[in-house]
Amino acid sequence: MKKHQHQTLCRWHFFAGLYVLPFMLMLTITGLVMMFYPQIEQWQYPHLVQVDANGSSLPLSATQQLDIIKKSYPGFRVRQYQPPQSADRSARFKIVSRQTPTQIIFLNPYSGEILGQLSARDTWYSIADDIHGTLMLSNVKVGDNNLGKLGDALIELSAGFSLLLLISGIYLYWPKKQKQPIKYSSIKHWLGFRFSKNKHGNLSRSSWKSIHASLGIWLSIILVFFVLTGMAWTGIWGQQLVQPWSSFPTEKRASSWQSDPASTLADHAQLNTENNEEVAWNLELAAVPQSRPLTKPQLQSKSQYQQEKIIPLPLEQIMQQGQQLGFDYFRVALPQTPSGVYTLMSVTTSGDVVDPRKDRTVHIDQYTGQVLADIGWQDYNPVAKSMAAGIALHKGQVFSWNLWLNTLACVLLAFSSFAGLVMWFKRRAGKKINARKKPSLTAPAKPSQQGMPKTAAFWFVLTGVLFPPTGVAMLLFYGYEQFQQPKND
Fold it and tell me: In this structure, are 361 and 428 located in the same domain?
């Protein structure tokens, strides 16, 4: 690589790194909080999540539990029932009213005692998720505009820039004057860590560079995986480009879809709670079928018609039906309107199961118990399958090894970012900038001739095409570079 090409890549790597670094630290920290939230919740709210099952009688039926919640919280609508995942766990109900955001109610399934409640948006998971996805701007409005989309776009841009950092970093750290065959010393230089101390007895800048670069190489595949699966949730690349092509095709009527596609209500995304994504990702844009109130010819008498039309099936009957359908574990979203449905959800990304191939969503008519839709892994298209598995792996929810691998990756990515920050400060210290002078970023000097290796340029352009926000930012930075005069910093 020629000198001017090296300098060009250095500047791209430097400015992309300045933008990505705070986002990388934020994403790794909030990601760790979300991955370990079950353990955090157990430590933070043991009085809410645990119950004493020793010597307890049989638990109350789901219908009895629901009645207790309705009587205790008049004026609220019950949105979701989450049965205990083990004998020593509490049951959970999610309720909402016009004046109050979603509340999580914890209930002892044996005694019927209400153990307490939490606001769904105030849990550590929701707070970390809001920061992770929108920089906590989802509830901030300027006029009629929600700033959550702005935060989402800034994070999406950082993800795209992370790919540019990886591409440029590999080129910059590639062993120089390499001849075939590859020597062991070159591999050791590329993948190993080299430690040396400066005259003050501290790690030298070259040591921090070795840590920063080698960790980047070691984590390159995991970083690309995190970026691609993470951007599945973003508002531009995810929701506008990828998700529509991966959604469940209700218009094609999968073999398990029994309702009339024209008879539908809102999309599945409205089954999510606040900022928490609880519905399978590829179903969020798909419409939800409607319950069809019974008509008189279907019933034996007028009294039966009046009773059946007004009163939906009890929750306990729906729970029994779910068990008959072969679920290992599932949550139930309750109908919110006369034409709503019971929705049984068992989704990896919500922690219901640990195998994405067991993802399943079933819609049941609230009056007749008819299965209107039974959507599982076999109904997903190839992209949807890869994203369903990828998102679950991204969140560390596929078996315990996935959690610990992601944890190690997050810690090392954060440390690599920290090492890059130390390199920058050491560079500034080395320049001995006079405090009276105008502050400077001490960016790498701009070469007199612009250019980069053809293969690097190809990967840069491909990244900009695949991820539009990154492409626009690249064009702006390229334009900025054209107006800058070469100088030594």
Answer: no
